[in-house]
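Hi R.,

Here's the chain you asked about this morning:
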Amino acid sequence: MTGLIGKRGNADAYKLRAATSTIGIRGTDFSTRLCATKDCLDDEAASKAAVKPQATKSAVVGRVMLAQGELSAKDEAGKERKLQLGASVYEGDTLITGVKSYGVVAFRDEGRVSLQASTQFRVEKFKYDKAKSEENAVWRLLKGGVRVVTGFIGRVNHDNYRFNVATATIGIRGTGFDAWCNGPCASGAGNPGATDADPLDGAGVYVWAGEVVMVSPGGSFVVALQQAAILARDSGKPVRILVIPPAITDNDTPRPDSIPLDMEKLFGTESDAGDPPGVYVTVHDGHVVLSLDDKSLDLFQGDTGFSDSLTLRLLSKTPGFMGDSMEIIMTDKNGQSCMIGS
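And here is the predicted structure, written out as tokens:
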């Protein structure tokens, strides 16, 4: 766990060298292990284990692909953190953009979301495990606007994907769409709908790929390609916008599918040959930069990185030997013991 060195303006003041790589910090709690053998069996504690500890899948569900201006996340406990390029997103996070800001986030199922300025967007639920055929996503737009391209979740079973805005749910059919929540919708008013005169002042959706179905307690409406719909303020029902304003069709926030997607770079790799010798770093809190020659790898909370003399890569799973065996027993001045680490 790092102290004040490196936190007061010069992040390069703190470095930890391990074999051929260097660990730099940005205010951090992390574990690192140098392994001389495959699966780190040179370590006394690991070699005594009858069974290799099970690797754990990263809790990271999304990554920031693009960030312009102010972008942050607030977790379920209310703790807020700034997000930068490559930063991790977790289930339960509320993503927040500032004025004149935007961000693009990619998720593990290859879905992507662009957040417009002054937006709040919550990742209420995200489960995706292709091997176990497990998939479920629930999103909620609290205020502002987003541009969405869906991934694998919901392609087979549409009910596994749910996008909520105010009192309405947007169901997908393999889709790219824009959704907004302004005015009475963003303020939590009892009637969050919009009007034909100003469809952006309320809750609505515009489809630019595929189609969606907008459902509210008052009814449902299928929104086809290049159509838009709002929650009608007078009835609470989803209704089509017959004349779509240019402010909706000419959205200047980048479409999420316009940003190149490299899933291996964003979410890491998994080796079938076990964990090779080298340096492993798991970040518990903060931001670590793992460097090798002229290459560097940014690691955030929940990430595990690996380096040997030739490679530098993000791992999709944290090796078991980076888990329980990293516990450290500390004793305070009163002789009381406490445990830190995983």
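One quick note: The first strand starts at residue 15 and ends at 18.

Cheers,
M.
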